[in-house]
Each structure stands twice: as C-alpha cells, then as structure tokens.
Amino acid sequence: MSGFxxxxxxxxxLSAERLRMDTISSNIANAETTRTAEGGPYxxxxxxxxxxxxxxxxxxxxxxxxIKDDESQLKRVYDPSHPDxxxxxxxTMPNVNILNEMADMMAASRSYEANVDSLDAQKNMFLxxxxxxx
Length: 134
Hints:
This protein has about 130 residues and is α+β, with helices and mostly antiparallel strands. Helix content is about 45%, strand content about 20%.
C-alpha cells in the first residue's frame, strides 16, 4: 500500500459524487419532460457505484458501474389540453420528485466536501512529513 492510496481513494470518491450530482441535475432538469427522443416521458436516472478492490493492489476507491433507470412507477396526471395527453386526457409524467432530488443533491454535496477535506488532511500530512525531513 503506497502513501498515496488514501488520496487515490478520496479522488475516486470526488469523481463518483460529481457523477451522482450530474445525474441528479439531469433528473431535476427533466422533471417535467413528457416526451423524449425514445418517445415516452423522461425516466429518473440513478448512478450505481461499487467498491473498486483489486487483490493485487488493495482498495482503489469507488467506481461507477452504471447509470440505470429508476423502476418506480411513472405519474399519470389528468390534463386533456396537454399535447401528450392520451384519449382519456391523461399524460404520463416523469417519476422525478424534486424534494427527493434535492435531498440526494445535499447528500452528494456533503460527501464531495468530505472527500475534499480528506484530500486536504492527507496533503497537510505529507507537507508536515517533508518539514520533518528538513
């Protein structure tokens, strides 16, 4: 295990949380999108991560595995004047809840800050070690 493994782990966490925030931002931006290029309403996306452990190298941090669709049910809203309304006057809305997205964004932001703090602490330890060597 090298002295920089902690920094590598924190950097992978930064990258993962940035991807998570990008995914959440996309969800918020498309919360009212009823028609996508695929034809249906926007479906909420979720970033999936897993540990990045290699037997030879040890813990390498976290890695993004995929961005998958949320399988929760889409909302149906009665609005016969909407251009995407079906014959009964209902439109299918995305399964994005803004309150949940904002809570997820706050959690991702705090995790990002924790990884930045970890990097700063490790950098300061290296600087102190260099001062001792003078």
